[in-house]
Design goal:
- The protein is mainly α.
- It has a single domain, classed as Up-down Bundle (Rhopdopsin 7-helix transmembrane proteins), CATH 1.20.1070.
- The protein has helices spanning 42-65, 72-103, 110-147, 152-155, 158-181, 186-225, 228-266, 271-277, 280-299, 303-316; strands at residues 24-27, 35-38.
- Strands 1-2 form a two-stranded antiparallel sheet.
- The longest helix has 40 residues, at 186-225.
- The radius of gyration is 22 Å and the shape is globular.
Amino acid sequence: MPVLGSQRRLLGSLNCTPPATFPLMLAPNRTGPQCLEVSIPNGLFLSLGLVSLVENVLVVAAIAKNSNLHSPMYYFICCLAVSDLLVSVSNVLETAVMLLLEAGALAARAAVVQQLDNVIDVLICGSMVSSLCFLGAIAVDRYISIFYALRYHSVVTLPRAWRIIAAIWVASILTSLLFITYYNHTVVLLCLVGFFIAMLALMAVLYVHMLARACQHARGIARLQKRQRPIHRGFGLKGAATLTILLGVFFLCWGPFFLHLSLIVLCPQHPTCGCIFKNFNLFLALIICNAIVDPLIYAFRSQELRKTLQEVLQCSW
């Protein structure tokens, strides 16, 4: 990526320098104190990408195989898996080409590598935007299923779900093209940061409201069964833990990347911000980790999907 990820650009591999020996080191900063820089080896990028690739392919295969999973909720989960799949594919492809260029096993002109780099950047940006959108869509779908349970199937219909999915993909592609074209414009970066904050706020409000409703429902059941404290306390702790994991993973994996974008606008020349910029590869690795964790949170918790996944694995063997 031109501004965001110069450390990961393919063009840099045409005239590369030897990688650092130690994964964690203090990087000198001539205008300020020393910086703590975490170096992510290309092999680790490749390994994380492959794990995410396999995991999300299994989710897509399981949902496609089982007709019982052909519902709006699982279609949103499937599209989230496809988005995470594209994040993994783009990073695996970029890392593989970089390793081949560094080893001298692939001879390519700078113009060809530039075009490939642009294609990969569009894939990465588009898949990131679509991934955030489908996380928000899943949150809205669950909210409607809880607060409007009787009207859910009339509100969230398959045609509407398909239109939402198509709109998200089109918007993601257009956004990625605009981002790559106008990456050096402050407005573009601010729009991306604002989009992340909006998704974070949307998910936090919806899931907190859902947790409050679930706890209220549990209290009502507890009063009927005259066992208010044990049920309410256990359910509340479990719900709070689930909410903390869901929002915590989202914030920890995506937050540093969008902090990086914010600092490019706010303090591009400040020494402290420069220290954060040096860890861009770590922020990309966290996004790939999110692509690994998403199936565990949204897909594999479904008993029906796990059962189908076992059938898919047995057929593959």
